[in-house]
Every structure is written in C-alpha cells, then in structure tokens.
C-alpha cells in the first residue's frame, strides 16, 4: 500500500482542522443561543463564510448531527486523558462530568431538529450510550476502587441523574444545571474516616 504524504496529506489535515473549528464554533453558538441560532452567527464565530458551512453541512440537521457526534467523540476521548492527568480518579470523574454537562447543554434541542427522523435520533442515542457509558464507567469505577466515591450506584444511574438535572435548564436563566450536577457529584464523595 502506498502512503500519501506531502501536499495531499497536509490539505486533508487542514480540512479536518477547519471542520473541527467550524464544529467547535457551532457548539459554542448552540450553547449560547440554541440549535436554532442563525447560521451567520456560527460563520462569524468560526471566521468563515456562510458558503463554507453549507458546503460541509447542507442542512441544519446535518450540522446539528455533526456537532453532536463531534461532542460525543471529544467527551469520550477526554475520559482516559483525564484519568491519567488528574490528581485523583474523583477529580477526573468530576472534570469529565462537567464536560458531559457542557455536551448535554449543546445537544439540547436536537430532538426538535430531528423530530421527523425518529430512526436517526434513536441511532444517535445508541451511539451516545455506546461511546460515553464505558468512559463514565471507567472513571466511576476507578474512583470507587480508590475509595473516593460510593460504589452502590452504576455509571448508567449517574449519567441518567446528570442528564435529568440538565433537562430543566432550557429557557430558565435562573436554573444552573452545572451547579446542581456539582451537588450530585459532591454527594458521591466518601469522606475519610
């Protein structure tokens, strides 16, 4: 097999970086303004023209799905990295849960965009669970094995609890999901004897 190098490989790497920049910008705008935010706001945030967005993502649903998948991957990849770089497994779990909350806020509104495509939505939900549940379990199990958190819960229950706390954030500026999730995660902590 012949490997490509030089300009073709560099061009693909640049295209991948540009697409990631665009997805990061869209996620930021979606968090601030919801998934119905004007595409021009996303273009402005990404520093690109509208044509660039439409070339990559012909429909809003295409963009939302791409942001969703991009965020899932970023969240999944962060777990193992946090486990090796954090001071304790509990600190890694806590930091990962904060990233998970950011992801949940970003994906808020996805159902309304994909309402007519229930099979597509189910597929994304399965993808979400398949990628993130094992990461949460790894972090939670490490913290439990270290004696830092109670072990009578499962990673699935923790993710559901976090998800349920994030549901109330839509349209209510007084509701701080991250603060309430912090209370939940603090409640997992075992105090030293």
CATH class of the largest domain: Mainly Alpha
Q: Provide the CATH superfamily of the largest domain.
A: Tetracycline Repressor, domain 2
Contiguous helical run count:
9
Q: What is the 3D form?
A: globular
Given helix and strand content, the structural type is mainly alpha
Question: Which second-level CATH architecture of the largest domain applies?
Answer: Orthogonal Bundle
Primary descriptors:
2 domains; HTH_TetR; Arc Repressor Mutant, subunit A; 193 residues; transcription regulation; mainly alpha; transcription; Tetracycline Repressor, domain 2; DNA-binding
What does this molecule look like?
The protein contains 9 helices and no strands. The protein is an all-alpha fold. It folds into 2 domains: 1-58, Arc Repressor Mutant, subunit A; 61-193, Tetracycline Repressor, domain 2 (Orthogonal Bundle), CATH 1.10.357.10. Helix 7 (118-145) packs across helix 8 (155-167). The radius of gyration is 19 Å and the shape is globular.
């Amino acid at each position: 097999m012949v490997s490509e190098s030089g300009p073709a490989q560099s061009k693909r790497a640049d295209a991948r970086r540009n697409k990631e920049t665009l997805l990061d910008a869209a996620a930021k705008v979606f968090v601030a303004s919801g998934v119905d935010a004007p595409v021009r706001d996303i273009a402005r945030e990404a520093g690109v023209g509208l044509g660039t967005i439409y070339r990559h993502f012909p429909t809003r649903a295409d963009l939302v799905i791409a942001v969703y998948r991009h965020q899932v991957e970023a969240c999944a990849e962060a777990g193992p990295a946090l486990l090796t770089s954090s001071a304790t497994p509990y600190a890694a779990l806590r930091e990962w849960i904060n990233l998970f909350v950011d992801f949940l806020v970003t994906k808020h509104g996805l159902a309304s965009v994909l309402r007519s495509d229930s099979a597509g939505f189910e597929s994304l939900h399965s993808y979400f669970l398949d990628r993130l549940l094992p990461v949460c379990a790894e972090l939670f199990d490490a913290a439990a094995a270290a004696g830092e958190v109670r072990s009578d819960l499962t990673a699935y229950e923790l993710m559901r609890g976090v998800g349920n706390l994030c549901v109330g954030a839509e349209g209510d500026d007084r509701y701080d999901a991250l603060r309430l999730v912090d209370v939940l995660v603090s409640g997992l902590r075992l105090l030293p004897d």
